[in-house]
Amino acid sequence: MEQFVYLAGPVLGMTEKAANDWRQDVAERLAQHGIVGISPLRCEPIHGQTYQPGYPDDRFGTARAIMHKNLLDVQKCDMTLAYLPRPREPLPGEFDLPHHSWGTMAELSWAKALGKPAVLVTDDPKIRAHPVLNASAGWVLDNFTDACDVLIGILGGYTGGSRNV
Question: Which structural domain, as residue segments, surrounds residue 35?
Fold first, then answer.
């Protein structure tokens, strides 16, 4: 039986590489244990060099389309991995993002409201200390290796990809 993990994290203003590299790495690690990583970017169009607001694609690029697709993914997945890195200065060509990913925060809240377990990965002490964000996740970790270990440990027993007893 396949298990699914929604890979929530920064998109808006990110280059395709920055938005996808960590998701691809996590998805490959999970796939070795029969767990499927679901990316919110699977049908979102990139506009120029970065994911920007005001996409010209009415099928997948509007705010409503993105929100409803992502909500569906959180509902359908067994768990959510939410990545909230500390804000940083943008790289050349990136949209100015001196704040956290608000969409990821919404997705983490959806997971909690839907009773879906979540793993939060962050290097930001402010996120770790925030009572609502911290309590929204069953695990608050600082790296993807530990996050994958948790996801595989929890879901792998259902897929046969991990020790069950």
Answer: 3-159
Task: For residue range 79-116, list pLDDT tens digits in order.
Answer: 999 999 988 766 665 555 556 788 999 999 999 999 99
The reply to whether 74 falls in a domain is yes
The rounded distance, in Å, linking the Cα atoms of 37 and 153 is 15
CB distance 59 to 65 below 8 Å: yes
Residue (of 6, 27, 5, 3) closest to 103 by Cα position: 6
**How many structural domains comprise the chain?**
1
- Cβ 40 vs Cβ 61: under 8 Å: no
Could you say which DSSP state residue 50 is in? B
Q: How far apart are CA 103 and CA 30, in angstroms?
A: 23
Tens of pLDDT, residues 44-61: 777 777 777 666 677 888
Give the strand pairing for 3-8 and 35-38.
parallel
User: What pTM did the predictor assign?
Assistant: 0.90
